[in-house]
């Protein structure tokens, strides 16, 4: 479980996050949604410690992560897997070496064991016959899946995804969503996903927080986010014609038409 | 104020870089890769430039010393001292600042903007130490070797250019000039300069690359800044070290 208590963050004179509190439970896919520039990537980077918060606390299973020094955070960081927007694969090494990388750093496994683990993780994300390819030879969807394989290689307790579906076609996006959901349940991780993809929200949003202009406006799950009375959330959700149709059909269904 | 800010940030980066490595074996492998990337791949350019500069120094000196009052072997001595004292350490370092410095800054800058450095930090790896320290160690090891190669090839270039190609000096006079009043301390001096310059090239270039913010355009800017600042600092430290070590 990860708990945020009154998180605030400023860059220069610009307040990026204001007083955000939330609880993200283990074994669930927790979504942070909001439009571009709303502060969700900054929030995610604060949670993983890439940015320091100005105020508030970040608690990983009763350990106050935000108060720890960098050296003390290492033990928690070894339990974190993160998939970045562009994958962030190391482009000078192969797919297999990318997945083995964290194992090289933090385990005493033999080379054969590490290759076995890498193959298991790559199989898990449906990547086959690509072990010796370089990241530049992969498609966008494959890069994301290899990044997921690298993130789960060290059996993390906490998984973070920053815009996992950006730049992907709808079919690949669905595949990635499905994978996130399955991995969260299978490895019992606390998963936090940053997204503005409405399909992801409907598919995998066990818990959703909506932020806009650095503030949390709404909290709920995929079953009630279409019927919210929150104006800011509704403006965000129903910005596209497709979602307006979904919204109309949902309200018709509820009213019995 | 900006200048002081960058100096402070540079030393903070050095502090982070010189921290204890997470995995000695992985660092060793990184150093071997960097030796190849930063050193061995520069041998070709160093050999070509050293040969031609050595030849040109001998020929120019030969044509400028036409008086019978100065013995011809002085041409060999001037070639030797020019190459050992200044050319091989300073000029080769300036060339490496352009080649290796831009390479380091663009590599780290690209890693930064594509979030690869963030990925290392998330894994609990000290990214500055992991990425920069092997480059510093590799440069400190390989640059003196490049300078020694440069000195050898430069003197050989002077020999071939001055004797075989243009006949401005005889082989006997050239060899006598090379041996005349030779001071071994000059080699120590030039190797000390080389080590300082190697440190400047790797750390200054790493600084600009490591703290790149933005996209491809900023990576290009970081690369340019790395070369410009390394070059200026090499020239500044050349003056300081010459005054300190030779006066």
Q: Which geometry of chain B do the CA atoms define?
A: elongated
User: Major sheet of chain A: order of its strands?
Assistant: 6-7-8-3-9-10
SSE pattern of chain B: HHHHHHHHH
Major sheet attributes of chain B: none
Beta-strand fraction estimate of chain A: 15-25%
Q: Please state the oligomeric state of the protein chains shown.
A: heterodimer
CATH architecture of the largest domain in chain A: 3-Layer(aba) Sandwich
Count of β-strands of chain A: 10
What's a quick, concise take on this entry?
The complex is a heterodimer of chains A (257) and B (247). Chain A is α/β, with parallel strands linked by helices and 257 residues long. Chain A contains 9 helices and 10 strands.
Question: What would your notes on this structure say?
Answer:
The complex is a heterodimer of chains A (257) and B (247). With 257 residues, chain A is of the alpha/beta class. Chain A has two domains: 1-79 and 156-227, Rossmann fold; 94-153, no CATH class. In chain A, 40% of the residues lie in helices and 24% in strands. A six-stranded mixed β-sheet of chain A has the order 6-7-8-3-9-10, sandwiched between helices. Chain A has a four-stranded antiparallel β-sheet with strand order 2-1-4-5, with helices on one face. In chain A, strand 4 (55-60) and strand 5 (63-64) form a beta hairpin. In chain A, helix 3 packs across helix 4 and helix 5 (140-152) packs parallel to helix 6. The longest helix of chain A is centred in the C-terminal third of the chain and has 18 residues, at 170-187. The radius of gyration of chain A is 19 Å and the shape is globular. The relative contact order of chain A is 0.16. The model of chain A has no long low-confidence stretch (mean pLDDT 87). Chain B has 247 residues and is mainly alpha-helical. Chain B has one domain (23-246). In chain B, helix 4 runs antiparallel to helix 6, helix 6 (127-165) packs across helix 8 and helix 8 (185-210) packs antiparallel against helix 9 (216-246). The longest helix of chain B is centred in the middle third of the chain and has 41 residues, at 73-113. The mean pLDDT of chain B is 92. Chain A binds chain B through residues 45, 48-50, 73-75, 77-78, 80-82, 84-86, 88-91, 101-102, 104-106, 160, and chain B through 22-23, 26, 114-116, 118-119, 121-125.
């Amino acid at each position: 479980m990860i708990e945020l208590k009154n998180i605030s963050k400023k860059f220069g004179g610009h307040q990026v996050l204001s007083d955000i509190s939330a609880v993200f439970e283990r074994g669930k896919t927790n979504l942070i949604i909001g439009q571009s520039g709303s502060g969700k990537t900054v929030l995610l980077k604060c949670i993983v410690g890439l940015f320091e918060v100005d105020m508030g606390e970040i608690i990983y299973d009763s350990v106050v992560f935000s108060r720890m020094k960098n050296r003390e955070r290492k033990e928690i960081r070894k339990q974190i897997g993160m998939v970045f927007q562009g994958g962030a694969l190391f482009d000078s090494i192969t797919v297999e070496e990318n997945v083995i990388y964290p194992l090289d750093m933090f385990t005493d496994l033999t080379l054969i064991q590490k290759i076995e683990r890498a193959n298991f993780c790559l199989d898990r994300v449906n990547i086959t016959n690509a072990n010796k390819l370089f990241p530049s030879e992969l498609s966008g969807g494959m890069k994301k899946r290899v990044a997921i394989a690298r993130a789960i290689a060290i059996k993390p307790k906490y998984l973070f995804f920053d815009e996992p579906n950006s730049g992907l076609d709808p079919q690949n996006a669905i595949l990635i969503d499905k994978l996130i959901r399955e991995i969260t349940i299978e490895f019992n991780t606390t998963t936090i996903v940053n997204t503005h993809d409405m399909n992801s929200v409907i598919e995998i949003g066990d818990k959703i927080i909506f932020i806009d202009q650095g503030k949390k406006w709404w909290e709920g799950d995929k079953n009630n986010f279409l019927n919210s009375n929150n104006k800011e959330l509704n403006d965000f959700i129903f910005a596209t014609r497709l979602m307006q149709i979904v919204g109309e059909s949902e309200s018709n269904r509820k009213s019995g038409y | 104020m900006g200048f002081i800010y960058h100096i402070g940030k540079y030393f903070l980066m050095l502090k982070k870089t010189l921290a204890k490595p997470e995995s000695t074996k992985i660092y060793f492998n990184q150093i071997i890769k960097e030796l190849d990337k930063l050193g061995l791949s520069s041998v070709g350019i160093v050999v070509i430039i050293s040969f031609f500069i050595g030849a040109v120094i001998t020929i120019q000196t030969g044509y400028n010393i036409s008086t019978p009052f100065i013995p011809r072997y002085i041409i060999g001595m001037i070639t030797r001292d020019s190459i050992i004292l200044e050319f091989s350490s300073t000029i080769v370092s300036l060339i490496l600042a352009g080649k290796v410095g831009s390479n380091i800054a663009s590599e780290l800058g690209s890693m930064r903007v594509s979030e690869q450095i963030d990925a290392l930090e998330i894994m609990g790896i000290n990214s500055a130490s992991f990425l920069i320290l092997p480059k510093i160690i590799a440069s400190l090891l390989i640059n003196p070797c490049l300078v020694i190669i440069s000195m050898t090839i430069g003197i050989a270039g002077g020999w071939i250019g001055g004797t075989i190609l243009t006949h401005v000096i005889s082989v006997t006079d050239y060899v006598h000039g090379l041996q005349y009043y030779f001071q071994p301390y000059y080699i120590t001096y030039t190797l000390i300069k080389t080590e300082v310059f190697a440190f400047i090239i790797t750390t200054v270039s790493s600084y600009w690359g490591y703290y790149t913010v933005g996209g491809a355009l900023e990576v290009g800017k970081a690369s340019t800044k790395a070369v410009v600042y390394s070059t200026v600092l090499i020239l500044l430290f050349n003056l300081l070290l010459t005054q300190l070590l030779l006066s």
